[in-house]
Design goal:
By secondary structure, this protein is α+β, with helices and mostly antiparallel strands. The protein has 10 helices and 9 strands. It folds into 3 domains: about 130 residues, Roll (PH-domain like); about 60 residues, no CATH class; about 130 residues, no CATH class. The chain is elongated and about 90 Å long.
């Protein structure tokens, strides 16, 4: 452990700085892309792909409106910045949010998400709450970039900025020298991965899309409720990008999908051609039906493999990999 004393200071983090604005813009783009990914799978599987361009424009307008609303909230509620406290020690650096408004808004989002049953709002609130206090350990893997004109130090992981360290004019050089010394002493930069990991997660996302399409198509073919496939698909994406434990929801959804599909296929229906007789859909399936069902089974097996791999720790999520960067 470093024998030097801790460096502690309080300052305001600029919400309208170039880095914050870039992050906010990327977040809005991500919201639009995820929304269109979900809607795209549903509409393509339902044979209504021609409606996607107009839906894409509509969702772009909504996302833009949400982005502008967020900027207004930053301006009116937080006045463009919020107070933070940094503690730089021999173990790492910690950033604490001191804004009461930020903490209240995070808890409000959690409460609204629970009451409304909207996992997106709940998840956003939980993630924001978890970031009220963030810590980077020198045992992690990250590099630094500096913005001397604004006394800002950026600590970046393999694919995103892990922490913005906003210094004051009177301590910028001291903090920068200490961070460089600790990173050198703990060999933090040497642990940076040799390849950019984002394509791996994008590839897994593409596999989830391909595996989910026949499952949605089966539900469309037999006029089944697509709520379960939507839940399955959303939580499969969340398993890749957020929390591996969401794999349990994927497995549970797949189990219910299999159960409802089997019940539907084995349900007896009255024959209009032969009065008094009944038949099941399983008995009248043709080659195309069996092919679609086979693809859906393969897709379900692939999603189950992904969920089990995540739950067993073999397939880390992007967020968990990000945590490893933090140390």
């Amino acid at each position: 452990m470093s024998a030097q004393k801790n460096i502690v200071w309080e300052t305001n983090l600029n919400l309208f700085g170039p880095e914050s604005m870039k992050g906010w813009g990327l977040a809005m783009v991500a919201v639009w892309l995820v929304t269109m990914l979900i809607l795209g799978v549903v509409f393509v599987a339902g044979g209504e792909a021609e409606a996607l361009p107009s839906i894409a424009l509509f969702m772009l307008a909504i996302t833009t409106g949400l982005g502008v609303m967020g900027l207004l909230i930053m301006l009116l509620l937080f006045r463009g910045s919020y107070p933070v406290r940094y503690t730089l020690s021999g173990k790492g650096i910690r950033m604490q949010t001191l804004s009461r408004a930020a903490r209240r808004s995070n808890r409000l989002a959690i409460a609204l998400g629970m009451l409304s049953g909207k996992p997106g709002v709940l998840g956003a609130g939980l993630i924001a709450q978890s970031r009220e206090t963030e810590t980077l350990s020198w045992r992690g893997a990250f590099r630094l970039e500096t913005r001397p004109s604004r006394q800002l130090i950026m600590l970046k992981g393999a694919w995103r900025t892990l922490m913005q360290v906003q210094c004051r004019p009177d301590n910028y050089e001291q903090v920068l020298a200490r961070i460089r010394e600790e990173m050198r002493r703990h060999r933090t930069l040497e642990r940076m991965p040799g390849r950019f990991p984002l394509p791996v997660f994008l590839g897994r996302t593409a596999l989830v899309v391909l595996a989910s399409l026949p499952i949605f198509a089966v539900h469309t073919e037999y006029d089944l409720d697509i709520l379960l496939p939507v839940i399955m698909f959303c939580f499969a994406l969340a398993t890749i990008w957020l929390i591996p434990l969401f794999g349990w929801v994927v497995l549970g959804s797949l189990g219910l999908i299999v159960f409802t599909l089997v019940v539907h296929l084995l349900e007896e229906n009255r024959s209009y051609i032969r009065p008094g007789q009944t038949y099941t859909l399983l008995e009248v399936m043709n080659a195309e039906d069996w092919l679609l069902l086979g693809l859906a089974i393969l897709g379900a097996a692939g999603l189950a493999w992904l969920a089990l791999g995540a739950l067993r720790g073999r397939i880390p999520s992007a967020l968990m990999a990000d945590r490893l960067d933090k140390g």
